[in-house]
Design brief:
The protein is mainly alpha-helical. It folds into two domains: 2-77, no CATH class; 80-148, no CATH class. Helices cover 24% and strands 5% of the residues. The chain has three helices and two strands. It has a two-stranded antiparallel sheet with strand order 1-2. The longest helix has 18 residues, at 125-142. Bound molecules: flavin-adenine dinucleotide. Flavin-adenine dinucleotide (FAD) binds at residues 79-80, 112-113, 123-125, 128. Flavin-adenine dinucleotide binds at residues 79-80, 112-113, 123-125, 128.
Length: 148
């Protein structure tokens, strides 16, 4: 079967939902609360691939792989948690300002994956790193530090 098949990886994205979150149980254990949403987007993406199969000289049927990392594998399989300390301009909907500084505190910056407003549907690490460098430049400028 492997010799005659071709794998495709389709990535779609859940839309932000405050109920999809990390919770602490009374005994201190971590629990993920998750309900999938935006399935229409996923189905459209899947249909798009199916329509392209003939052009790719592939058979026009797909065998669904039901392995879904966020669902079939428990907590350890969830790889792209983000948005727990979102950035934005409105303190009512974000904890950080656009420079990733806490709205309410002058000396607290957060530059990990939590600043995301929404998941990206792509791997997040490069964006996390780029943002950390952006915020670093902002902090240097704010304190008048010039690196030669
Ligand atoms: C299995 C798996 C595969 C992945 N593959 C990819 C991939 O291919 N490409 C990609 O872009 N992304 C991938 N990701 C996602 C990516 O790894 C994360 O999104 C990213 O590492 C998050 O970066 P972060 O800085 O927000 O947090 P982390 O990288 O989790 O860093 C948090 C750090 O804080 C430390 N820490 C925690 N608590 C404390 C404390 N109290 N005091 C001091 N330090 C503390 C932790 O030890 C850790 O070093 C993958 C994730 C997983 C789980």
């Amino acid at each position: 079967m492997a010799k005659h098949s071709l794998d495709f990886w389709l990535t779609s994205e859940d839309l932000p939902d405050p109920e999809n979150r990390v919770l602490l149980k009374k005994n201190g254990e971590i629990r993920l609360h998750y309900t999938e949403n935006n399935m229409e987007g996923h189905q459209r993406l899947s249909a798009k691939l199916k329509n392209m199969l003939n052009h790719l000289r592939c058979e026009s049927h797909m065998i669904p792989n039901t392995l879904y990392l966020g669902k079939k594998i428990p907590l350890a399989g969830t790889a792209h948690q983000n948005g727990t300390i979102r950035f934005g301009t409105d303190p009512h909907t974000s904890a950080l300002d656009v420079n990733c500084k806490a709205h309410d505190l002058d000396n607290l910056y957060v530059v990990d994956g939590s600043f995301f407003v929404s998941s990206t549907a792509v791997n997040p690490s490069l964006t996390i790193m780029a943002n950390a460098m952006r915020v670093g430049d902002h902090i240097l400028e704010r304190f008048g530090v010039h690196l030669s």
